[in-house]
Specification:
67% helix; transmembrane helix; pentosyltransferase activity; mainly alpha
Length: 421
């Protein structure tokens, strides 16, 4: 029932708020940004290419899962049409609504059914939980959906919240296979999330061995998961080798991102005025040098700036840590008070989630360290490169559950009885 409520609310918002009617500014660049341009190239026969203006050639600027989805929708319903926007937002809304199921199971396994029920309803109806699904054509919702199933699967494999008699067989080869496939899809959706893979895999392996599972069976499972994960990634990496004649396992744009986050005038946020889609000079350099050479050149420039002023880099890194958890206030916006309200809401749920995690660790709740490793590792790259509010979204199912448990754990303080005179 909660799933259907969540889905109906999301689809109704898309339809009634007309979020599928995107502005034609800069030839609809806001329709999926780089992914939208690549989707257009795929649908019009240019292949996986052209992430900016015009035909700039093959690209590995972003990973391929969501651009391939966009290309398929464009092929069926037209490039940058309102119908294609509605369909893509509806697909994202399905992924978002399905996270009701994963949020529920995380709450039920780690805490109790009351926490699970409230977490499910909060995810279904909380505006911040649905904003990316109903307003953004990008990979955030898909990536968060896939990672939420990793959380659930990890808890299942360690038999947290499961019957004791299943402990020795919870981390079966079948589940390890699904684990590997999920991580392969995550890599193709948002490769930055791979920083959580080593900690997550080790946590599952140690938990399975402690539950009485045989070491040999777990070794087979780890190998199987690794092979399937690499099998998902291999076609993309091979394509990059064939096209660019270099080993590019995931993305080619790290150097460019590093410069845009740490270049001259950096305050910790992405300086879009250095981006090829805004700066004609950078677009010309990108086109003339080629994507890989351009990104490497910008990366060398960023490294030189960081080495020349490490104190400034340390300062903007601390600012990014703050921005990741407290949000980025756009004080120049025409809707300043709306921005203040949005930021207060963002900060409140962050604080509640962090306090909920601290409480779970203090009480030695099974599964708490899985959550802690997610909180530690997932933001790590963003702290040093660039940050945006949407980067927190893959953590938000955990934040939701932890925040609900924090308030469910509160106890009323009884007033001491006053003795009668």
């Amino acid at each position: 029932m909660i799933f259907w409520v969540a889905l109906i609310v999301r689809l109704a918002y898309i339809t009634l708020a007309h979020t599928y009617r995107l502005k034609p500014y800069d030839h609809y660049f806001g329709f999926g940004w780089e992914m939208g341009r690549i989707g257009r190239a795929l649908a019009t026969g240019y292949g996986y290419a052209d992430p900016f203006r015009g035909h700039t050639g093959p690209t590995a600027w972003v990973t391929p899962l969501y651009p391939l989805l966009m290309g398929g929708v464009f092929k069926l319903t037209g490039v940058f049409t309102p119908l294609s926007a509605w369909i893509l937002l509806a697909i994202d809304s399905v992924f978002s609504a399905l996270m009701v199921r994963t949020t529920w199971e995380i709450g039920a396994r780690v805490f109790n059914t009351r926490v699970a029920r409230w977490s499910g309803w909060l995810w279904a109806l909380y505006p911040a939980a649905m904003q990316y699904a109903v307003r953004w054509i990008w990979e955030m919702t898909l990536s968060a959906f896939l990672l939420s199933w990793v959380y659930v699967l990890a808890l299942r494999m360690c038999n947290i919240g499961g019957p004791p008699e299943e402990a020795a067989t919870a981390a079966s080869p079948r589940r390890w296979a699904i684990f590997g496939l999920l991580w392969g899809l995550i890599a193709l959706s948002n490769a930055s999330l791979l920083v959580f893979l080593p900690a997550c895999g080790l946590w599952v392996l140690i938990g399975a061995l402690r539950s009485g599972s045989r070491a040999r069976q777990q070794a087979v499972g780890v190998v199987l998961a690794s092979v399937l994960c690499l099998a998902c990634i291999a076609p993309w990496t091979y394509r990059n080798w064939r096209v660019f004649h270099q080993f590019i396992p995931m993305r080619a744009n790290f150097g460019a991102e590093l410069y845009m986050g740490n270049g001259p005038g950096s305050v910790g946020l992405l300086m879009e005025y250095y981006h090829p889609f805004q700066d004609a000079t950078q677009l010309r350099l990108y086109r003339e040098m080629g994507e890989v050479a351009y990104a490497k050149m910008r990366g060398r420039m960023a490294e030189a700036i960081i080495k020349a002023d490490p104190a400034h880099f340390a300062g903007v890194t601390l600012r990014r840590i703050y921005f990741f958890w407290a949000g980025v206030l756009h004080t120049s916006s025409d809707h300043r008070w709306e921005e203040y309200g949005r930021d207060l809401n963002f900060q409140f749920i962050s604080i509640a989630g962090l306090l909920g995690l601290a409480l779970a660790l203090y009480r030695k709740i099974p599964g708490a360290w899985l959550f802690a490793w997610a909180f530690i590792t997932l933001p790590f790259i963003y702290y040093f490169v660039t940050v945006a509010a949407r980067f927190r979204h893959p953590l938000e199912p955990l934040i939701t559950v932890l925040a609900v448990n924090l308030f469910q754990s509160a106890e009323k303080r009884r007033k001491p009885l006053t003795p009668a005179v």
